[in-house]
């Protein structure tokens, strides 16, 4: 752990922080009934999540609430604080999640792009957008990724979670389903969420995994690139 979170920023004086497993890009700590996470997101990008997560709750999902610091911000010294939800991760993404995700999509078509992010439709050739650093990706690979996205079926964009995997789901004791880790959420095409319910992820989804992992998880990015070329040889 690089540094301890500013517990006083949320008025916390309980047990010592306990590091949780599962966070591949951020440090995740449990302190009593809350969870603290490191974040690279701006205050505006965190505020964007509030109506998006509320739409998910109205669709029937449990979503941990981001908690404001004593100064009224959603982050302090590069950390966020949210409610802790206890549960068990499912073995696979349950089919029962799909209608809830589609309901949340339908409620967020009018939401603007998350500050600091870009969809595949608007992804500039250079610069950093969310976790995608186009300047760091070799030109030939970046061009291939854009070609994959250009071949996508045109869809109306909405707010998406963008990281639906079993490890980001919890089945709570009363049987309800919780969706956690909204760090990669943005406005984009629904297919990036709905791919979670397919037996094989489409090329666009695999290409996005390459792009957003290139600098933060390079080994994973290389595995996803190999998967893209082997599963979709037309892009190799």
TrEMBL record:
Residues 1-23 are annotated as: Disordered. It holds the Pfam family APH. InterPro entries: Aminoglycoside_PTrfase, Kinase-like_dom_sf. It comes from the Bacteria. Residues 19-196 form the Aminoglycoside phosphotransferase domain. This is Aminoglycoside phosphotransferase domain-containing protein. It comes from Pontivivens insulae.
């Amino acid at each position: 752990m690089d540094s301890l979170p500013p517990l006083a920023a949320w008025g916390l004086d309980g047990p010592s922080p306990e590091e949780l497993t599962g966070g591949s890009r951020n440090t995740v700590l449990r302190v009593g009934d809350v969870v603290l996470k490191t974040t690279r997101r701006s205050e505006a990008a965190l505020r964007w999540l509030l109506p998006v997560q509320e739409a998910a709750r109205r669709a029937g999902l449990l979503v941990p609430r981001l908690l404001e610091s004593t100064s009224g911000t959603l982050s302090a010294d590069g950390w966020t604080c949210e409610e802790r939800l206890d549960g068990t991760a499912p073995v696979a993404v349950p089919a029962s999640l799909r209608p809830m995700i589609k309901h949340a999509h339908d409620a967020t078509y009018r939401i603007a792009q998350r500050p600091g992010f870009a969809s595949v439709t608007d992804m500039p050739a250079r610069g950093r957008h969310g976790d995608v650093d186009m300047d760091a990706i070799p030109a030939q690979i970046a061009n291939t990724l854009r070609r994959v996205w250009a071949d996508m079926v045109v869809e109306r964009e909405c707010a998406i979670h963008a990281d639906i995997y079993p490890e980001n789901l919890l089945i709570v004791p009363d049987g309800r389903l919780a969706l956690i880790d909204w760090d990669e959420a943005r406005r984009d095409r629904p297919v990036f969420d709905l791919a979670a319910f397919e037996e094989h992820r489409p090329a666009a989804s695999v290409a996005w995994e390459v792009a957003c992992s290139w600098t933060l998880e390079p080994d994973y990015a290389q595995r996803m690139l190999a998967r893209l070329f082997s599963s979709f040889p037309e892009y190799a």
